[in-house]
Amino acid sequence: MADDNRLAPGDAAPEFTLPAADGSSVSLASLRGKKVILYFYPAAMTPGCTKQACDFRDNLGSLADAGYEVLGVSKDKPAKLAQFAERDALTFPLLSDPELAVHKAYGAYGEKKLYGKTMVGVIRSTFVIDADGKVATALYNVKATGHVASLSKKLGVS
């Protein structure tokens, strides 16, 4: 499985409706007209994913002021996402994709290198989707630490 299913700027962002940690459902279509930062992370409550989620939480104000909605997606069940959100005071939607359908639609699941070994799993990825539902930015294999700062810089958000 190569990079053939990866998205690029200008592509239509794949539509989805996923259950959120709070029991609601979130669909991309319901956010049309807004800019969306959609990020995929391997597992709730692991050190790297916690760091990344807390970075998004800590920068939510400036991102929201710039018109961005932040959504986190993992394969965790909503109950685990609710624990994660509560434990780390995460105030943006955490979405559950246990079947990995949305991960795969965005190219955020597949072969990756981990500690020099090739394996199949969740690829830490971030997508910026414009108000018309098009991919503005597609970032694959991002680092958990420092990612939000570099993304904010790229988006001109301070």
TrEMBL record:
GO terms for biological process: cell redox homeostasis; cellular response to oxidative stress. Transmembrane segments: none annotated. Keywords: Antioxidant, Disulfide bond, Oxidoreductase, Peroxidase, Redox-active center. It comes from the Bacteria. The active site is at C49. It catalyses: a hydroperoxide + [thioredoxin]-dithiol = an alcohol + [thioredoxin]-disulfide + H2O. Residues 7-158 form the Thioredoxin domain. It is an enzyme of class 1 (oxidoreductase). PROSITE patterns: THIOREDOXIN_2. InterPro entries: AhpC/TSA, Peroxiredoxin_AhpC-typ, Peroxiredoxin_BCP/PrxQ, Thioredoxin-like_sf, Thioredoxin_domain. GO terms for molecular function: thioredoxin peroxidase activity. GO terms for cellular component: cytoplasm. The keyword Membrane does not apply. Its EC number is 1.11.1.24. Belongs to the peroxiredoxin family. BCP/PrxQ subfamily. Monomer. PANTHER family: AHPC_TSA FAMILY PROTEIN (PTHR42801:SF4), THIOREDOXIN-DEPENDENT PEROXIDE REDUCTASE (PTHR42801). Thiol-specific peroxidase that catalyzes the reduction of hydrogen peroxide and organic hydroperoxides to water and alcohols, respectively. Plays a role in cell protection against oxidative stress by detoxifying peroxides and as sensor of hydrogen peroxide-mediated signaling events. This is thioredoxin-dependent peroxiredoxin. It comes from Spongiactinospora gelatinilytica.
